[in-house]
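Data availability excerpt. The first of two example chains:
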Amino acid sequence: MDDGASALPPLSRLRWLCRRGMKELDVMLEAYLARAWETASQDEKQAFVRLLDRQDPELWDWLTGRTEPEERDLAHVVSRIRQPYAD
């Protein structure tokens, strides 16, 4: 049975997926990847990969706190990404 680790894209692919249409998103997503990826749980990693499938306007609203993801695991990842930028 698959443990889920093989379903995760390689780090180089994740770096590419963090490159968005908005420089601000690039910076925040790449910073999370550099800071937290290695120590993140498998569930958090899978949620981050799912987060990268979202459209830029939705991500921007989440990362700026305008709206919150309804899915709990995505909300957790969003809070971890925003952590260094909190007031």
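And the second chain:
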Amino acid sequence: MTWWSQPGARGWRCAPAPDVLAFHRSLPEYAPTPLVSLPVLASALGVGRLFVKDESSRFGLPAFKVLGASYAMHKAVTGPVSHVVTATDGNHGRAVAWMARRMGLACRVLVPAPAAASAPLIAAEGADVRVVPVGYDEAVRMAAAEDGLLVQDTAWPGYEQIPQWIVDGYSTMLREIDAIPDLVPDLVVVPMGVGSLTQAVITHYRSGTVRPALLGVEAEVAAGVQASLRAGRLVDVSTTDTVMAGLNCGTTSSLAWPYLRDGLDAAVTVTDAQSLAASDELDELGVSSGPCGAATLAAARAALAGHRAELGLSRSSTVVLLSTEARRQQGPV
């Protein structure tokens, strides 16, 4: 487990995200996901209140990703588009396939070999799924070379508009948290893969009046964001397999980078064992959370054990964990 922090992040300001909640509300299946209070965990961790934003079922899919994919495709498909293409560790590709079917579009999804177990679930949404013998970052490069409209949840120079719409779509999750009466978080913990969700979280909390500490968590074997933060510039890292498939990214989104660099209070890495133990713990408390989502609990435990002062936390603080995926029984999805 490695830790990085910077002072002054809560003073950094940025422009707010557009209001996309109205779009999501226009979809027939829309309903806010639960914000679950876990007083037993709050007591165990020595804080006043602890909540889990439970994204285990969003539009009938087992993750938050559809918030971004649906909004981005709604914005991007304005002309004669016949098919879309993406690369995925699992949940993003399934979300793109779900929205493509709603819009009457063909969909091709490239799945890196380490996430091959997700292929049947994506195919069940009507997509043409191809498992490719490479890792996530190379799969993204392959998708970018395909014909069709690329709907990718990471950005690089020259490809930023659709990733920005995806980030904007994620803001609905945070607007739902805002709607809970008498809830002002002191710490929000978010999983980090390429950094797009973290960009959405930073945008939300660095553009409004509520300014909690923001903690990002990565897989220990795929800590591209923390490597970049330590270097002060974007750094690519080699990754190895992890149960946190959605966090197995070695290249940080170029669009997210300025937000991560300036607006994130702290970053921590966790092991597979820590994320799996946290998933089991949340399951016992009635929250379905896979390794990527449960990594936030492992991160909060590390932060509260040794870094309270850095984050401005006390025994009366309110902590919110963003649990981004459902618990799974077998294979990374």
